[in-house]
Write a structure and sequence with these properties.
The chain is α/β, with parallel strands linked by helices and about 550 residues long. The protein has 18 helices and 25 strands.
Length: about 550
């Protein structure tokens, strides 16, 4: 069996100008980044109106068995293209952290991939590095201001801004810097986040243009004065230089699927510790250039989809036409207690115990958000007809259809039944709404997400979180949407609680305002904004030969 990277490397892909022409674009509308990548220039859309139908692909709660959400997203787009629909797929950029960590490559799989796969997974067009540079420029200017006399009166013990690096490096979570004497800075406790958790990444993904980007960057709060007044990037006069570093990163990246469907891959915030969606700029460009836009949100629907709908759609005024919820029989059996080593065996009891996880996600999309949905079962050869029938029966009881997907093995052809159902759903009216209203206090918004989406009893707060919420609301930030950072492996904040647990409380450990992004970041449980590498990182299996051919990406 061929690996994903072998399939990608053997594919005959189109010159990027030919891909652009499928969208009605010319050479004047793109900026080349080699033969198979380009950035779209403002002329690509001009004054065109958004006309496409937006399709969100999300998934059940992840397990080690895998769900194939990105693969399904790409395969669905290819299937729509095969039907003659003018389609664009809009995805996030992979972070080097998971690429070298536990996940490996993140550009789809099998015969449903975006290419050039190696480039997309490794550096791509440099956007994530630009985010890191802008983030760390702000950190350097902050510490330099303190070193040069601290005219703003910044309290070193109340600095909230961290440096970042696009790598899983637990060694950098908690550090002390400025050591080495008077000429080496002011000593203080510090730490790093992974770049995709940086507020700069969120700002890049939510900004509508360069002017909006600069305004958002200027609003970023880096810490507080001795009197408790917020200090911003604007106060440090850093926003202009940060925007200069991000100028090219603001332009959406154009690539293609293995079947030549245009793909915009732009922005990369994680969904467990950030807001988990590709950029507003890329989504809006796609809606102007295509009739159908297929996008994804990270991890399960309790994380990525919730943030896509409650944060991205709220800020950008987007309205999805349909939602696809990806599941596998194997993963559902794991949620029902089956061991990973036994997933190839028929086990209707374990499947029955795991199905409530899928059904809660389905119910949330349909009843909390008022959106039409279809379940895409990413079928494996070991799935039995009895297992598939059980999934169909239980979903039908909620009024949601199920379609089998074999896009990993067959590309767009394996997603045609799913595509037909998606088209049908997009032609129906929906009653899209948010999980919570804008005017609610921060705690009530958190309560709404925990009870309506997670199925929990409520939230409990540490004394630190209570103080932070009180301070943020006193400063006028109580209106902000909430971005909950939570384990991706459970509806709860405990990764061990599989399936669809109930009666649990979510512990809110810390709350901080991302004033540039426009939301409050809520850290729950033991979630970390700097992941670590596993015992055997994927990096150990990645190599490059003398001819420059990369192996081991997936």
């Amino acid at each position: 069996m061929k690996t994903d990277i072998q399939i990608a490397q053997e594919a005959k892909i189109l010159p990027i100008l030919d891909v652009a022409k499928k969208l009605g674009l010319s050479e004047e509308d793109i900026e080349y980044y080699g033969k198979y990548k380009a950035k779209l220039l403002p002329s690509a859309t001009g004054r065109k109106k958004e006309r496409g139908k937006l399709i969100l692909v999300t998934a059940i709660t992840p397990t080690p068995a895998g769900e194939g959400k990105t693969t399904t997203t790409i395969g669905l787009a290819d299937a729509l293209s095969r039907m003659g629909k003018k389609t664009v797929v809009a995805l996030r950029e992979p972070s080097l952290g998971p690429v070298f960590g536990i996940k490996g490559g993140a550009a789809g799989g099998g015969y449903a991939q975006v290419v050039p796969m190696e480039d997309i997974n490794l550096h791509f067009t440099g956007d994530i590095h630009a985010v890191g540079a802008a983030n760390n420029l702000l950190a350097a200017m902050l510490d330099n201001h303190i070193f040069q006399g601290n005219a703003l009166g910044i309290d070193p013990d109340r600095i909230t801004w961290k440096r970042c690096v696009d790598m899983n490096d637990r060694q950098l979570r908690y550090i002390e810097d400025g050591l080495g004497g008077a000429k080496s800075g002011v000593p203080r406790k510090d730490g790093f986040d992974i770049t995709v958790a940086s507020e700069v990444m969120a700002v890049l993904c939510l900004a509508t243009g360069l002017d909006d980007l600069k305004a958002r960057l200027a609003r970023i709060i880096v810490g507080y004065t001795y009197e408790g007044k917020p200090v911003t990037a604007g106060d440090l006069k850093a926003a202009g230089a940060m925007a200069a570093l991000l100028k090219d990163a603001m332009k959406p990246n154009l690539v293609q699927t293995l079947e030549g469907t245009p793909a915009l891959v732009h922005g990369g915030p994680f969904a467990n510790i950030a807001h988990g969606c590709n950029s507003v700029a890329a989504t809006r460009v796609a809606l102007k250039l295509g009739d159908y836009v297929v996008t994804e949100a990270g991890f399960g629907a309790d994380l990525g989809a919730e943030k896509f709908l409650d944060i991205k759609c709220r800020f950008a005024g987007l309205r999805p036409s349909a939602v696809v919820i990806v599941a596998t029989v194997r993963a559902l059996k794991m949620h029902g207690g089956a061991l990973k080593t036994a997933l190839a065996e028929e086990d209707l009891e374990a499947l029955g115990r795991g199905l409530p996880n899928l059904l809660r996600h389905v119910s949330n999309i349909k009843h909390v958000y008022g959106l039409p949905a279809v379940v895409a079962v990413n079928r494996f050869p070991t799935d039995t007809d009895a297992e598939i029938s059980l999934v169909i029966e239980r979903c039908r009881a909620l009024g949601v259809s199920v379609r089998l997907s074999t896009v990993w093995a067959e590309g767009g052809k394996g997603g045609e039944a799913l595509a037909e159902e998606v088209v049908r759903l997009t032609e129906t009216e929906n009653d899209f709404r948010y999980c919570y209203a804008d005017g609610l206090p921060i705690k009530e918004k958190i309560h709404a997400v925990v009870t309506k989406i997670y199925g929990g009893r409520g939230a409990v707060y540490t004394p630190e979180a209570e103080e932070e919420i009180a301070r943020l609301e006193a400063l006028g930030f109580g209106h902000a949407p909430v971005c909950l950072a939570k384990t991706q492996y459970s509806f709860s904040d405990d990764a061990e609680k599989l399936g669809a647990p109930t009666g649990f409380d979510v512990t809110v450990r810390s709350v901080k305002i991302a004033a540039g992004a426009g939301f409050a970041v809520v850290l729950t449980g033991n979630i970390m904004t700097m992941p670590g590498l596993p015992k055997v990182p994927a990096a150990e299996g990645i190599d490059v030969d003398g001819g420059g051919n990369i192996t081991g990406l997936f």
